[in-house]
Amino acid sequence: MTTIKLKNGSGAPTTSDLVQGEPALDLTNKRLYTENASGAIIEVGTNPSTLTVDTNTLVVDATNNRVGVGTASPARILHVENDGLADLLLRDTSSYSVGTGPAVLFQGKDSGGTTTQFGAIYGVSNGSNSGELTFETRNSGSSAERMRIDSSGNVGIGTDSPPSTNNYKYLAVHAPTNAYLRLTNNTTGSTSSDGFDVVVSGVDAALINREAGAVKFHTSDTERMRIDSSGNVGIGTTSPNELLHIHENSSDGSWLRVTNSTTGAVGANGLLVGINSAEEANILNYSATALKFSTSATERMRIDSSGHVILNQSAGSSDNTLLRITGGTAGYSTLNLGDTDDSNVGNIQYNHSTNTLAFDVNNSERMRIDSSGNLLVGRSNINYGYGTAGAFILSTGQIQTEVAGACLALNNTSGTGTATIISLSRGNSGAGGIASSVGGTPSFVSASDVALKENIQDHGSELNNVMAIQTRVWDWKDKAKGSGEGVVAQELEQTGWADLVSEGAEGYKQVSGLGAVEIRLIKAMQEQQAMIEELKTEVAALKGE
């Protein structure tokens, strides 16, 4: 039987007033005292406005409706404080069961005045010696789990089964259709159109920066890549100037490598595009295959594994292939042909200021086509005259050569009979040629087959015409040409052989069919005819005629 002793006045009872566990009530001051196991008098409770246990072990502030544990001045409805770990223990002492455990419930009045649970935090068992934390909220009258931290420390939002893999920790966000993880700050704002989203929509994933800023990627606490607000991707640069900009922040080369399972993936594999340390642009194919260039899904050019350049290899029968080299109006367009000893040993060069096409061999010009279409070999102009070795073919068809030797060497390989060496035509009709028999002397020939002729008659007399020809010798005004023999064109025009006179390319008259031999024979015939006439006179005298 416990005796309750009452004490009027103020102050606590003395140790002589109580025994261990015996209470004493001070009715005047409304305080409750007892003696603890150590024999000390302690105050158990206060009046209805304050209840204190051991100074600050437990304090009930009835005035402010607050409870303090470890503090005599609770600042909230429940205030737990300790000089060290301030922990709160919730223990479920019921029998073990997976999915059960203590909870912290959050309740209040709904709009209808009914007490409603708005949220809860549960500590539940998920197996032997393992537990999880689940977080529940209420939406439109229904409560459901929104987040879970499993026993491995993985966090699931929208899922009660976040992924769990050894050595990895997961933050799993799940939604029936679109799952978003949004990050915002005071600068971005916090509306639906602000911040940065990590999104899974159906089978698609997206990183969305809703601000006019970059998306950056870092390794070793250093930025390695970014996508700027214009959509340009920069690797190694914070200011990309193109859709893809790769930068090496040193004097070393900067490269883009493309490989597959066939090429291999080590340093000497695949396709490499970039610049080297000498600032030279490179496209490197490390495989022993071609480097192809295509347009309209059709190959147009390739460099094969031997280094050969092939244009339009797959061209159809009606396709055209064009290789264009464009230069300035006062410059050159050049195709340079070199070797390992001389990079400039051969050239094909078009001069746009003079509109000439020159061909260089062994570092010297050997041939050109001038602006008029004339072909010049061994010379740079078509000025007539002697002293400049070479040849040219005019666009009009004329040919001139000059050389210290045979100007024209022709060989008909026919081994028998008489063969034509040069065939001549006029007005698209055969006019003859120069022929030679094996071991014989070349001679002029002309078509003479009876099948080609009609109205065949005896030739008229030519003796008077022959006798009228004046054969001449002379010195050329061009001293380099020396002397000559033959006829004067204007004098021949006065004879029956005027048809042999024509006008040459330079406007001077010329004679055909009368070479040195013919002239000498004509002269001999004239001398012989004079002798005949003299003999005829003598014979007539002898006959007395």
Characterise this structure.
The chain has 545 residues and is mainly β. It folds into four domains: 5-80, no CATH class; 103-285, no CATH class; 327-404, no CATH class; 463-543, no CATH class. The strands form eleven sheets. The chain has a seven-stranded antiparallel sheet with strand order 28-29-30-31-32-33-34, with no helix packed on it. It has a six-stranded mixed sheet with strand order 9-10-11-12-13-14, with no helix packed on it. It has a four-stranded mixed sheet with strand order 1-2-3-4, with no helix packed on it. It starts with a strand and ends with a helix. The model has no long low-confidence stretch (mean pLDDT 88).
Give the helix/strand layout.
Elements: E1 5-6, E2 24-26, E3 31-35, E4 41-45, E5 50-53, E6 58-61, E7 66-69, E8 78-80, E9 103-109, E10 115-127, E11 130-139, E12 142-149, E13 155-157, E14 171-173, E15 178-183, E16 196-201, E17 204-209, E18 215-219, E19 222-227, E20 233-235, E21 244-246, E22 254-258, E23 271-275, E24 281-285, E25 291-295, E26 298-303, E27 309-311, E28 332-337, E29 346-351, E30 356-361, E31 364-369, E32 375-377, E33 390-393, E34 399-402, E35 418-426, E36 429-437, E37 443-445, H1 463-468, E38 472-475, E39 483-486, H2 489-492, E40 501-503, E41 509-511, H3 516-543
Parallel strand pairs: 1-2, 7-8, 13-14, 20-21
Antiparallel strand pairs: 2-3, 3-4, 5-6, 6-7, 9-10, 10-11, 11-12, 12-13, 15-16, 16-17, 18-19, 19-20, 22-23, 23-24, 25-26, 26-27, 28-29, 29-30, 30-31, 31-32, 32-33, 33-34, 35-36, 36-37, 38-39, 40-41
